[in-house]
Amino acid sequence: TTRPDSLVSEHKGEKGGLSGPPIKELALQSVKDMYKLTGGKIPIIGVGGISNAEDAYERIRAGASLIELYTALAYEGPGLPARINVELDALLARDGYSSVSEAVGVDVKLEK
């Protein structure tokens, strides 16, 4: 796993998985890159550093049509998905979307 320079733990050089906030920006860029590479034709699962509706919405707008929760779910518990759904619905409505599918990839310019 690529490790961001911002890690400060004494264990930052260890091999193995990394999840949560430290990989948020790298994961977001990966969604954008894959959305561009596939022309938005293949479903992408947004993962890495998603802990609230804003994070989920950012991934959706970057091209993810599904969202996976892991670290935040472990820390915040089983109520997190419902909370994200309610808040995500408000974000979609704020921007004039009636469904997630309408917002998928809106922040990514596809080459024609």
Structural description of this entry:
- The protein has helices at residues 24-38, 53-62, 71-76, 80-94, 100-103; strands at 45-46, 66-67.
- The protein is mainly α.
- It has a two-stranded parallel ribbon.
- Strand 1, helix 2 and strand 2 (66-67) form a beta-alpha-beta unit.
- Helix 2 crosses helix 4.
Summary, kept brief:
It is built from five helices and two strands; from the N terminus they run αβαβααα.
Taking all Cα atoms into account, the compactness measure Rg is: 15 Å
Instruction: Provide a count of the helices.
Output: 5
SSE series: HEHEHHH
Low-confidence sequence ranges:
none
Give the strand line-up of the largest sheet.
1-2
Ends distance: 32 Å
Core attributes:
112 residues, mainly alpha, two-stranded parallel ribbon, flat
List the helices and strands and how they pair.
Blueprint: H1 24-38, E1 45-46, H2 53-62, E2 66-67, H3 71-76, H4 80-94, H5 100-103
Parallel strand pairs: 1-2
